[in-house]
Specification:
heterodimer, A: alpha/beta, 6-stranded mixed β-sheet, 5 helices, 6 strands, 25% strand, B: alpha/beta, 5-stranded mixed β-sheet, globular
Chain lengths: 151, 421
């Protein structure tokens, strides 16, 4: 399963569950929305391009997706949770919405959620798996709030 | 049987579903762009596809019975200045192999800028450099193979030019994507007129291919109504958007200085010795175009610009040998010294020939030719054989491949490279 298929599988599921897709990206799609660090003077230095940003009611979710387990993404998501340097650009991106809860997580093929992914899960708010049949599994949720968001 | 080679599966589905390819027998396969960035898979690409990928990889190639039918490049980048030409080498590679090339490019895109005096952000449309239409026309004229640009759909720039923030698709930077984001993620709005016209042109190519076969069909394409109409529209777009400017005032031609070839030869004389003289190729042309890139040595957008300058200014035939003017890339600031009938190249931005050599050397780890048979894994053997046949042709990084393909000479403040023949 490619990263493109992972992202498209999650998009389909989110749309079916009434999430509004704000932006998305996968390799060579040419889409996506770059977020720059707060007070960044340089054009694209340290900017990030989330793989999916979606909104439902007052919740907003951010995804980093891959076709495999990739520890660096878990660390990257963790930095967004504990030390978000992109709040200015996120505010602009979501200026039409009133957001109370932000959650940051990982998307990957379900079968790639192995021991290493389980061990790293504490770094993120959620892990969503795309099954071979393209159905979706919530593989990890950090707390009840996250569970409520996806229910 | 048609085979669709793609960089994103969404775009392959988009093209299949909106053309008569959907009624034909079609399979899909992923493109592996080069031996440099897909070393474990590139050698599995068929030889006739590799030829198109030699300079750079397009987003989609459609083939029938092992003959390429057309290729498509799609971009959402803003096309001002040099940027419009960033992907030009990909188009050239297709057309030089007699494969029709389609380029989907936005007429404009909303970009955030900073007001230099107030330091406040503002939004404006960056619009396409119309010289790209002339460059495509030059390619078409030389090869009599379609090289057509269709606009990536956007909000109407004429309506929202004064205040880009009012554009309906402001959050998408003015670009109009297909509404079906799950199946056609990131693809242009299929209901837009430019895309409808492109589907018509693609259908006319597939129809001709079905009727006559791939190669005989190619000879008829330039007479096809849909293709002639788009060619005319591109000419009109150039005139309407050039606002009376001549081509030489537009980027990248505005960075080109033309000198008598004697000036170049006098500059290169320092490399001649008692036993070595600069060869005949450069001498056979009276004039030389110096493309000045006063920057650190790097890739995009310069490879595509160099390719475009070749077609706009130098080429008269199908290969680099068929040029009326030498094409020389200069990394550094050029001064023409009319008194001594030579040129001078100064380093202002850290241009250094060692960076060129370093980029070439960085590809050495892809080279299997230095290995013993016992060092090769089974999966390396087909790749080894490809490299035996083609050397490092596909193993070098793109900008090195393109610069060395198009330039008759590449000059740096501290060193030079040139062709003898």
């Amino acid at each position: 399963m490619t990263e493109e298929q992972v992202t498209k599988g999650i998009l389909k599921w989110l749309i079916a569950h009434q999430w509004k897709i704000i932006c998305f990206d996968f390799p060579q799609s040419g889409t996506g929305h770059f977020l720059h660090p707060n007070s960044s003077a340089e054009k694209n230095k340290d900017s990030i391009n989330p793989d999916i940003v979606a909104v439902k009611h007052t919740d907003c979710i951010f995804f980093e997706n891959k076709d495999r387990f990739y520890y660096f993404d878990y660390e990257k998501v963790n930095r967004l949770i504990v030390d978000n340097q992109y709040t200015d650009d996120i505010s602009v991106l979501l200026s039409q919405y009133i957001i109370k809860n932000y959650f940051y997580g990982i998307g990957l093929p379900t079968k790639k959620h192995d021991k290493r992914s389980i061990a790293a899960s504490h770094l993120v708010d959620f892990i969503i798996g795309v099954n071979e049949d393209r159905n979706i599994s919530l593989l990890y949720k950090a707390n009840e709030e996250v569970e409520k968001t996806f229910s | 049987m048609y085979r669709i080679w793609y960089s994103t599966e969404s775009f392959a589905d988009y093209i299949i579903d909106h053309t008569i390819l959907s009624t034909l027998q079609v399979t899909k396969k992923k493109i592996f762009e080069s031996d440099a960035n897909n070393p474990t898979r590139f050698h599995t690409m068929p030889d006739h596809i590799r030829k198109i990928l030699y300079l750079d990889a397009p987003d989609l190639i459609v083939e029938k019975d092992d003959e390429p039918v057309f290729s498509i490049e799609v971009t959402t980048e803003a096309g001002t200045g040099h940027n419009a030409f960033q992907r030009f080498a990909r188009l050239a590679a297709a057309v030089e192999n007699s494969v029709p090339a389609f380029y989907i490019y936005p007429e404009g895109k909303i970009i955030r800028r900073k007001n230099k005096s107030t330091r406040l952000d503002f939004f404006k449309w960056d619009t396409i450099n119309p010289l790209v239409f002339r460059a495509l026309e030059a390619v078409m004229s030389l090869y009599t193979i379609p090289a057509l640009l269709y606009y990536f759909p956007t909000d109407d720039i004429s309506i929202y030019s004064a205040d880009a923030t009012l554009a309906p698709h402001f959050n998408e930077k003015g670009l109009c994507y297909d509404a079906n984001i799950v199946t056609y993620s990131g693809c242009p709005d299929s209901s837009a007129l430019s895309m409808v016209k492109m589907f018509e042109a693609l259908n006319s190519i597939v129809n001709a291919t079905e009727l006559m076969g791939v190669i005989p069909a190619r000879n008829t394409l330039m007479r096809t109504r849909t293709i002639r109409d788009q060619r005319n529209l591109m000419q009109t777009q150039f005139v309407n958007k050039a606002y009376g400017k001549v081509e030489d005032e537009m980027s990248p031609l505005s960075a080109v200085t033309e000198v008598p070839t004697e000036y170049l030869l006098n500059y290169l004389h320092r490399y001649e010795t008692r036993t070595y003289q600069i060869g005949d190729l450069l001498r056979t042309r009276d004039r030389t175009a110096l493309y000045q890139v006063n920057a650190n040595f790097r890739g995009d957008p310069y490879p595509g610009c160099l390719a475009a300058i070749d077609y706009l200014k130098c080429r008269t035939g199908l290969t680099y040998e068929d040029r009326v003017i030498n094409l020389v890339m200069v990394w550094g600031k050029v001064t023409v010294d009319s008194t001594n009938r030579t040129i001078k190249i100064d380093d202002e931005k850290g241009s250094n020939i060692n960076d060129f050599f370093s980029d070439v050397q960085s590809c050495a780890d892809k080279n299997l030719l230095v290995k013993d048979y016992s060092d090769l894994k089974s999966s390396d053997i087909p790749r080894y054989l490809m490299q035996v046949r083609y050397g490092s042709t596909y193993s070098k990084v793109k900008h090195i491949r393109v610069f060395s393909y198009f330039a008759d000479a590449i000059l740096f403040p501290n060193g030079s490279l040139w062709r003898d023949a």
